[in-house]
Amino acid sequence: MSEPVLTAMQRGLQSCGACGLLSSPARGEGIGRCPRCDEVVAFRKRDSISRTWAYLIAAAVCYVPANLLPVLRTTTVGSSWSDTILQGVVLLWSPTGWPLSIIVLVASIIIPSAKILSLAYLLVTVQRGSIRNNDQRLRLYRAVEFIGRWSMVDVFVDTFTAALVQLQPLMSVEPGPGLVFFAAVVVLTMLAADSFDPRLIWDAASSNEVRYG
Amino acid sequence: MVSKRKTRPSLVWVIPIIAAMVGAWVAVARILSAGPEIRITMESASGLDAGTTKINYRGVAVGTVSKIRLSEDHHHVIVTAQMAPRTEGFLVEGTQFWIVRPRISGANVTGLGTLISGAFIGMEIGDSKVPKRYFVALETPPVVNGQIGRFFVLKTPDLGSLDAGTPVFFRHLQVGQVASYKLDADGQSFSLRVFVKAPYDRFVTSNTRFWQSSGINLQLTAAGLNVETQSLLSILIGGVAFETPPGSTLPPSAANDVFTLFANRTDAFAPAARNPQTYELIFNESVRGLEVGAPVEFRGIQIGEVADVRAQIDLQTFKFSVPVTIRLDPERLGVNLLKPRPGISLVSIRRRLIDSLVAHGVRAQLQTGSLLTGSTFVELDVFPDAPPAKVDWSQNPVRLPTVPGQLEATEKSVNRIIKKIDRMPLEQIGNELQKTLTDLDRTVVTARGTLETAQGTLTTAKGTLESAHSTLDNANSVVEPGSVQTQELDHALHEITRAARSVRVLADYLERHPEALIRGKTGEAK
Amino acid sequence: MYNQPVADATLIACPHCDLLQHLPGLASGASARCPRCDEELYRRRADPLNRTLALSIAAAILYIVANTVPMLGLTLVGRDASTTVMGGAQELWQDGQAPVALLVVFTAVLAPALQVGFMLAVALGARRERPPTWVATLLRYHRLIRTWSMVEVMMLGVLVALTKIADYATVIPGPALFVLGALVFLLAAMQVSFDPREVWDRVEWAQPAMRGDAAAGVKSEAAR
Fold first, then answer.
1. Worst-scoring range by mean pLDDT, B272-286, B332-346, C86-100?
2. N or C: which end of chain B has fewer CB within 10 A?
3. Which chain B residues are Cβ-neighbours of C69 within 8 angstroms?
């Protein structure tokens, strides 16, 4: 390589997140507007680390009631009971229907916790200036971003189960208090993934490269 | 240079075309599958769900409730329903709608299935051809709907336990029910409208008798105890029964013909007295047990009835007497009064008949009808020893001669016996007895031997007595509580308790495992 | 304050690792990847505008159908119930779960509608030689909308709910269910068919004065 490997930021260029146009901000300014598509441009996503931490912590806080409070309340003739997410997973388990159980388990419990842990790990490594495993870390980020929306599955499952099973007095289903916390976890982790700037991962390496390149 | 020539439309345009077709097809299908829309006004929409509640006609869902809202004056509910396609012919004048919910009425509990399946709207199609789209719902389901049969009107002074829905029986088979009743304008009787379904309605002729068969009909009359019931159902909620006297070949009655509703079967089939004649009987004894309506019999055949029982004291002689007014139907004696010859009146023939009967010793006497009830009746019989009497036709009412009742006769004969005993030479008999006693002493020794054999006979007699005792006990057990009948009742009661218990167990189980209602008992996960 | 664009229009920064690089000319269907982090920088689409337009029209039609007819019905002991997509959100709202109801409406109804609508508008607007600035605005927001449009997630959720309910009741899939299934694929195809550079290269700039010849774009290079 004849040229040193450079990032746009090192060259003082800002990449527009919407249209991809590279442009240089006015002298001394950190933020500008893209001349092509009028979007606000900056070197990195605004307050990426602190915002991501904020979303993550909020998501972790909501994760507790999301799993402790029931998400569905079923009422039949003479009795009613409530189920949390975990109880729902257990109830879905049957010799023939176990894929459903797995889907809900993965989507509602594994994915959200994995997201929170992964993003926390990415944040910590970025903040410590780690230069190792950049590829894997970036891949981890892409996985988090892609998988995120699928945690919403359980929200839809509960919504349509409640919407459909309204056959009083035989049987009726209502969403429980845990559902809003669970929805909050999904939304907050999606916002956290969105606010995290993946370029931060390579930034530490890039500055090193320049230093030594 | 990029040549921006317009290529032919690429295949990708097939996709939106398919999408448009799908959309159009779905839209058209929905429009076509929509039938007419109707509006039903009702008092309350409780149990109805917009979008879910169905309209059922003979068990087939022919419409769905789409909207429920209050009327403008807030006193009614307007239910909009979407009917199935091709139901325009159903929606005419006379078509009725009603809500089917669990309902307990006089005769039955209906609509229990709706507890599980949800309330629905029942429907009956009218006969007219005039189309109609706005209806008012009936508040209660029509008692008879869609059945073929005929309505008849019954008149009764006393409603008893009858109500809309009370069953109508023919030979113990339920063939219809009471549809409605109302008090007549004069307030003296009720008009019941009963429905008898085909093909039993053709058994109703102008000669048919209707009677109330409510509950168990217990009649304690002079004839004894009469128990009559139609069915277990009628014991609980009453019933109306009808029957036609045999031998009548009259055509079936027309709809809405009027019949009298009798209080019981006996009354219904009591032959009508065509020409009752009133007479008076004077009794000088106690008439305890003689009721108005008690029969007047001749040798066991009822020929009349007691109309009135009074007490009368002659203030001058202080003698009391009991004039009993009776109504006789002499034609029941079987005397066929043929067409009288001209010149001889019916009355004179009757008088001559009674005169000759009296001359032959026919008298009226009080007799105990049933030892069980202590009721008395009047018996006309031939008493050859009776003092001669003559009927005075000038009195009003005419008096017929009587003889004293059995009790009085027994009294007189007892008196006679006592007098006889009085006249007996008892002293002489005493002396003779003394002499015979000494003779007896000697015979005692020889008699002792005979006594031993007598002992043996006594033991066997005791044995017989014991077995007689046991037979009596058996007989007792038949009559006593513990008899077969009461045992069966007991048994039935036990069954009911057992059934109630198992229902309770089931309810308990359901309480603990409510999902069992839908999923079956645990262990049957699909 | 508007930034100053670079002169070389082929210069771009990788969105994931910020590496500066030149985007080569690409044949139809070919893609360029970042050498450092392997992120796909750009894939040239075939016949982008027509395809996108066709697919977005189809998606719009199916979307309308999917939301007007019932999606699921069930029968249990003679009781019937059915629901549309909005019906699900309504039930949530009635049960006091207003935030979740709004979220469901947004992700299942509103965002997909905007996704299709914006795409349709952009596809139409981009047919002009110089697409006007509102096209750029719509395209800007489209990215955000795309993140929150979750029709495919809803489909999976509905299928799971369906299977759960089928254990004890007879489930009747409504026409909307199949239409929604098709819509999932249509939306994916629509996204894939779209070439953003088609629009960005030709669109009217927010600051037209700054537009240089650099805006000639990559495509003209590749066509040579």
1. B332-346
2. N
3. 26, 30
Beta-sheet pairing, C20-22 with C31-33? unpaired
- Other CB atoms within a 10 A radius of the CB of residue B7 amount to 8
Do A154 and A112 touch, CB atoms closer than 8 A? no
Report the number of secondary-structure helices (H) and strands (E) in chain C.
Answer: 9, 8
Residues in chain C with CB shorter than 8 Å from the CB of B30 are 69
Cα B261 to Cα B153: distance, rounded to the nearest angstrom: 9
Across chain B, mean pLDDT equals 75
What's the pLDDT at A116? 93
Confidence of residue C218 (pLDDT cuts 50, 70, 90): very low
**Beta bridge partner(s), residue B362:** B382
d(CA C94, CA A34): 44
Give the three-state DSSP class for B14.
helix
Residue B126, pLDDT > 50, answer: yes
Q: Most A CBs within 10 Å: which of B509, B510, B519, B524, as the mutation test of the A interface?
A: B510
For the cut 60, the answer to whether the pLDDT of residue A198 exceeds it is yes
Using alpha carbons, select from B306, B293, B358, B298 the residue that is nearest to residue B331. Answer: B298
What number of CA atoms fall less than 13 Å from residue B491's CA on the CB side? 7
Lowest mean pLDDT among B92-101, B228-237, C172-181, C186-195: B228-237
Lowest average pLDDT, out of B216-220, B351-355, C70-74, goes to B216-220
* pLDDT tens figures, A47-87: 899 999 999 999 999 999 999 998 888 888 777 888 888 88
Alpha helices in B245-319, H assignment, sequence order: 265-269
Inspect the interface and report whether the beta carbons of A78 and B518 lie closer than 8 Å: no
Tell me what pLDDT residue B523 has. 45
* Of A154, A178, A153, residue with least CA distance to A82: A178
Nearest to A195 by CA among A203, A187, A204: A187
The amino acid present at B284, given as its one-letter code, is: N
Residue ranges covered by each domain of chain B: 32-136, 149-269, 277-404, 408-437, 484-514
Sign of the dihedral defined by the CA atoms of residues A151, A152, A153, A154, in that order = positive
Q: Which of B18, B23, B117 sits opposite C77 (nearest CB)?
A: B117
| Tokens representing residue A101 in the block | 């159980």
Is B526 near chain A, with CB under 8 Å? Answer: yes
How far is Cα C63 from Cα C58, in angstroms, rounded to an integer?
Answer: 8
Domains of chain A: 1-43 (no CATH), 45-212 (1.20.140)
Whole-angstrom CA distances from B491 to A178, B197, B487, B495, B497 are 56, 36, 6, 6, 10
| pLDDT of the residue at A4 | 62
Domain ranges of chain C: 1-44, 45-207
Binning pLDDT at 50, 70 and 90, where does residue C221 land? very low
Contacts 24+ apart (CB under 8 A), C128-132: C129/C202, C130/C202, C130/C203, C130/C204, C131/C199, C131/C202, C131/C203, C131/C204, C132/C203, C132/C204
Q: How far apart are CA B320 and CA B312, in angstroms?
A: 6
User: pLDDT tens-digit profile of C111-135?
Assistant: 999 999 999 999 898 888 888 888 8
pTM of the model: 0.60
With beta carbons less than 8 A apart as the criterion, state whether C133 and C200 touch. no
The per-residue pLDDT for range A89-105, each reduced to its tens digit, is 888 787 877 888 888 88
All residues of chain C having their beta carbon less than 8 Å from the beta carbon of residue B519 are 167-168
List of residues 6+ apart from B14 with CB closer than 8 A: none
pLDDT for the residue A129: 84
Strands A166-167, A171-175: parallel, antiparallel or unpaired by DSSP?
A: antiparallel
Nearest partner of B232 among B179, B177, B169, judged by Cα: B169
